[in-house]
Design a protein that fits this description.
Radius of gyration: 23 Å
Oligomer: single chain
Number of helices: 2
Number of strands: 5
Structural class: alpha+beta
């Protein structure tokens, strides 16, 4: 009835509706990517290298970890003390293109400890 009053045809708002639906679909996709697939699984890796990642708040420490027969780069806390060869406790989550790893609160510990 509003379309008859304003002189718009019902198809004029179709583009707006499709745009809103696309935005919602993209938002849901980004949320699913960010949250990952299900609960994390605890895994252990070995520190094989170090690096930095630059951001607007400064440099963030990163470690290169050998885990699950592959290498991954994981951001660590500035307070976390890691050495080459240390074991590191990680949470592994499924991601659209493989896995995503995050450090746990325990983080790094000497290779000979359990």
């Amino acid at each position: 009835m509003t379309a008859a009053i304003t002189g718009e045809s019902p198809g004029d708002n179709l583009g707006l509706l499709l745009g809103i639906l696309v935005c919602i679909a993209v938002g849901v996709g980004l949320l699913a990517y960010r949250l990952g697939g299900g609960p994390p699984k605890r895994v252990y890796g070995m520190v094989v290298g170090f690096g930095l990642s630059e951001s607007q708040v400064g440099s963030l420490p990163m470690v290169r970890v050998e885990v699950d027969e592959r290498q991954a780069t994981v951001r660590i806390s500035r307070a976390m003390l890691c050495n080459l060869g240390d074991r590191i406790e990680l949470d592994r989550r499924k991601a659209p293109l493989g896995y995503r790893y995050n450090t746990t609160l325990r983080g790094c510990f000497p290779a000979n400890s359990r």
